[in-house]
Structure formats: C-alpha cells, structure tokens
Design goal:
- It is built from 17 helices and no strands.
- It is an all-alpha fold.
- Helix 10 packs across helix 16 and helix 11 runs parallel beside helix 16.
- The longest helix is centred in the middle third of the chain and has 33 residues.
Amino acid sequence: MKKITYLETLKHPVVGRLTLIQFISYFGTWFSQVAIASMMVEYGASEMVIAYIFMMIMLPAILLAPISGFIIDKIEFKKLMTILLLIEIAMTLLFMTINSIDMVGWLMLFLFIRSLAASILFSAEMALFPKILEGEMLKNTNEIHSMVWAVCFAAGMALGGVVTHYFGYDITFMIDVILYVIASLLLIGLKLNLKPIEHMESAMEMMKSGFIYLKNHKKLLHLIVLHSSIGFTSFDTLVTLLADYHYKYVLAIPLAIGWINASRAIGLTIGPLLFSKYINASNLHYFFVLQGVSIILWAFVQHNYGYSILSILFIGLLPTTLWSYTYYMLQQEIEVKFLGRVIAYNDMIFMLTNILVTLFVGYAAQKGMELKYITMIMGGGFLATAIYYKWFKEKYPTSI
C-alpha cells in the first residue's frame, strides 16, 4: 500500500489551515519565551523563581484538566479557538507591564492564564484530529504537528534571542501579539464540517463519566504514563541555569539560551524524517534507551558551549518521534465521545511530569547538585521508561 506523504496530508483543508495557524501561534509563544527567561535573569531571579516561572507555563494543564476536557467536548471547536487566541493576545500585552523582580507574581499570573488558553487550544486540536482523520493520515498529522512545534521552537528561540538582545523585551512582546492576531485572522477561513456530538449530561456528570471511563481502561492509563515520559526532556530551567553558570562568559544570556534551544529544535524537526518510518510498537523501547543515553552523554560536555550546542542537536532527534508515536497509540484507543476529556487528562499527566522535572532541576541546583548529575538523572528517566514499556508490551500486545 502506498505511503501517504506529509505533503498529501497537508492538502487536507482542515489539517493545512490548522497547521498554518499552529505555526504562527507556536512561533509567537517561543519567540517571547527567551525574553521572559532573560528578563528574570536580568532582574536577579533565583534558581527556584526561574523554575516557578516555567512551572506556570505547565501548571494549567494539570489543575484544570477535567474542566478543559469538558469545555473541549462541549463547545464548538472554531468558537473555542477564537476565544483562546484572544486570551493569549491580552496576556502577552500584559507582559509589557513587568519591569522588576517585585512584579514576578503578576508575571506568573499572566503566564498561567496564557498557558491555560494555549493548553486548552492544544488539547482541542489533538481531540479534533481523530474525529476527522484515521490511520496513517492521523499518524502523519501528529508528526507534522510535532515538527511544526519544533520548527517554531528553533526559529522562535533563535530570533527571539536576537530581537530581545538588540531591541528589548517590549518589542519582542509586541511582535508576539501581532503574530497571535494573524493566527486569529486565519482562523476565520477555517471550514470545519463536523457533526456535533450530543451530550445530555451536565458538566459535573460529563467530568465524572470521563474520569470513570479512564479509570476503567487501564491500557489508556499506561499509554498516558508512557507519553508523559517525554517530559524528561523538559530542559528550560536547565538551559537557563547553564547559560547563567557557564555560557554567559561566551555569549550574552539571551543569545546563549536562544541558540542552544534552536540547535535542539533543529534536531526535533529533522528527527521524524529520519526515524518515523522505523519506529513501531515492537522496537519502541530501543528508542527510549537511545534517548536516555544521549542525554547522559550530554551531561559530560554541557559545560562547554560549543560541545553542548552540538550534543543537544543529537538529543533533539528523538523526542518528536517518541512524542508523536506515543500520542498516536493513545488516540487509537479512545472512544470518540470521550476524546476531549481523555486527551485533557493525558496532557495533565504530561505537564505534571514536566513540572516535576522542572522543580527537581531548580531545587537540586539550589541545594548544590552539579548540573551534570541533574542531567544524568533526567537521562536515566528514559532508561526506566524503556523497562516499563517492555512490561507494558507483554501485558497489552498491540498491532500498531
């Protein structure tokens, strides 16, 4: 049977339009991320404050998963997406009011609200795709989505670092706002013919039934845990601390953060092109092992900016493929009417892993643990995941 190419997948009118909207909005998110991190370093934020800042980006998906799942399953997709993009625009404008470390609490609030909107938007998209796509088209769409994220991460971090360094924080945030506005305008042309699913239950009943459905399907729970392991690549706090401890002697902090993340994102972008056709349910554990080993090896050279930027390129080759394939495995197992709620719970666990890793990095660094050993522990998480998947594969055989 002929393989469906990425180009053929993008010719689908909904996939093509949403991919373009994703590209613009994701680019904007990462474009301003460097400004936020650099601003906190300039204002003298401690290791734990930096960790808390990045935690605010992930926290909404954890605290509000049951509610966001209900919203996704209840509200029409296009209307929901418009509201969420407007919220992101408003919060990004408010970033421009932050001018000292004393206002870090407000920054955390604005980040929390913007990330809440972004989290619901992401979950809504991932719940939409299985409703209109199947098989290889769905798998390709997941991979395209993850590659778009990676391209935006690379370009956003690199250009965001340059713009922040030369033009300051406010210009960076204003460019970010303009990008969100463009994404909102593109949404007007989205043509989505989707038969609405009637939900006769109340909000509380829907949230309860979604939880019970997930609780009664143990295979879904294990797939969610497997997908969440990609959170061991939550390097934001680690890279910020590396820039503060080591890289600032080589390069300005915004540029150091931007370029090292851009190098990683290049790997995230080209990784699926290299590995997607080889990964399957029978060999997935080998890819987890390879990911863990690459992170552990990075630990030994990360103090050197040149070696670190090259190493993180190789580290970035696998996470995109692991993320998209484990997401595909999960999507294939969920009943359509529960997609929004289960996807929201999945994103909750995924973000919880990211938060725990982020807090671990900040706390361990504050207590004096060398960044090298912190990195090795993060790599060890993937080795543990490989063992877990071997057990899962024997208990729940799959034909995917």
